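Morning!

As promised:
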Amino acid sequence: MHLVLIGLSHKTAPVAIREKLTFPADVQPRALASLTGSHLVSEAVILSTCNRTEVYAVASDSDGGVNAVIDFLASFHELDRHELVRYLYIVTGEAVVRHLFRVVASLDSMVVGEAQILGQAKTAYDYAQSAGTTGKAFNKLFRQSFEVGKRVRTETAIGESAVSISYAAVELAKKVFDTLDGRTVLVLGAGEMSELTLKHLVANGVSGVLVANRTFERAQDIAARFNGTAVPYESFYDRIRDTDIVISSTAATEYVITKADLAPAAKHRSRPLFLIDIAVPRDIDPRTNELSDVFLYDIDDLNGVVEANLEERMAEARRAEGIIDEEVAAFYGWVESMEVVPTVAAIRAKAEVIRQMELEKALKRLDLSDKERKTVEALTCAIVNKMLHGPTARLKKLSSTKDGYMYVDTARVLYGLDDSEDKQGPGAFRNLLNLRAREIVERHTETGEGIGDCGA
Amino acid sequence: MLQVAFVAFWLAMAFYAAATVLYAYQVATKRQALTWYATFATGAGFLLHTASVGFRSSATDGTELTGANVLVLMAWALVLVYFLLEHMLKVKTYGVLLVPAALVMMLIAQVLGASRSVLADVTAEQAALLDSWRVGIHVALIAFANAGYAIGAAASLLYVVLERQLKARKTTKLFSRLPSLSQADKVAGRSALWAFPAYSAGLLLGVLRAIETDVSLWWADARVVLAGIVWVVFAAYLVLRWRHGWQGRRGAYLLLIGFAMVVALAIVARTVPVGFHVFGL
């Protein structure tokens, strides 16, 4: 089993390239079928988001798999292969597992800690599963990656703080008011950023929207979109008493809200007033922050909050890397159990345990001389070795083919090499045999002798 | 029985200490998985604390109302009220302040001899003064009122810290762990609102008992004077808050002053051996 990943992301390719290499939902089945149509690729998942396109594949041969995926990308999107390769990253082996876990945990995202990528990875996996291009390896790998994503989100605070100006404003408003349900916001001026902030505030529960603009029609237009009320620009001070949050982004060159003008309104309030000044030059006199229960944040302050939050996210990302180390090790524990050599050794060791047990029982019932006992022992060895030679030789050969690990898995199931969860009856006996077989494997690994040699 | 109470008392303190560490670690790291353990440790400590009070009361044929033992009861009331608060608000931040406060009260009580296996020295005159149902209810009401004031003070402290950070526009790591200004303000106001009637009723019962037992110059006792000041401060707080809009920073500072008076009263009550209100010093 060779894991292969070919992809590009915001780190390696400009949007002009990324947009050419997308795999929307409607083309995924065709793309996945085309990809696994290659005799080299047995499983495939295509993760396609606005910031990355990644093709995960299980290939029978590492180099061949890489070439097959690149050929697929170039031909499917009718791109020049040599041009395309400049923007691609190629990952193989264990690094694929680590990369996927980092991607799903949002450590490789443009905004570290963003939550969408986990859902996008799940969707990509669902497409592949529906198209029948996932098997045992990717079912295990992707399901584990979702667990990694969840662990990182619950065990670290990687996604908890706002990392955009508008969300930072919402986060700060919540820090002041606890809940924004039923709060009223007054918007002064009409800028793109103020509208975006207003949108987030409304989405978080703000119910009263007042809009004041020098052009009353423009105020009416915005108010209508947010189910609010347009107020005459000249009388906005009268409405501040009923307001909890003020967003200001006018084009005025002088302060629109001054400390002296706000003080009377602030004095008669019995609750906080949160002022968000996203205008440059500033609309609100910084000295208003000196008034009791008035909190003023301008664009630099909000940027400062975002930067502090980003730093915190980076610190949490370092903790998340520890979780990923653990999960990669766990996945490779499973992969190793799927390797052919340890599987063949386990089959031989188990057969040896059974041979020794049965031989012991038989010898107790027979009165044999040393020479006879050795002959019987050699006989049992020969039978076991001849019985196992064919299946293990074929298993070794088949394991290097496209779906090789499936034969290994089947052999492990048929020979009962993995411990049973049933701790009673046959399950307990199987586990006992496996335990003794593992002891034999360990002993023979130390001595370097082959299992089932019978001292020949 | 006293030995069992003694063991339960120390185990309760051990659980409160563990809960303190867990609450602090949970707030520092935001690891939600720890909150269950912190609540469990507090709950286990509370059950042992209750058992300790019960066994001791059983051994002494009634709850001793000495300075040290009353402190243990106040710590018990504080943890109980905190549990109710945590259940209602689902906020653990207050545990960082209140559980260690209960622990400190128990440690001081221990220093004052709360868990000793002999009965406290109470004179016949004091015993006569204590021999009334009114005294028991007086102590219980004051204990619960003080627990309410402590929660109000914790909320006010958190309000002041967060308000300063918001004004300074510097969001430290602590910032995201603190409850919102509105919530802290609401908790502070409501705690005082619930605690004040209990405090008033407790004081009234104490005064009635002093009058019916003809204690001379009862009003001149330092504890009574301080209790009167505490009452006035909290009465002023409630009037200013609900009639004159003293919410937010001003209210928080006034509540903290009121609680500082409560602490001063608790210290005086257990250290100044002058006056009629002296029990088992």
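The mean pLDDT of chain A is 88.

Hope this helps with the figure draft.
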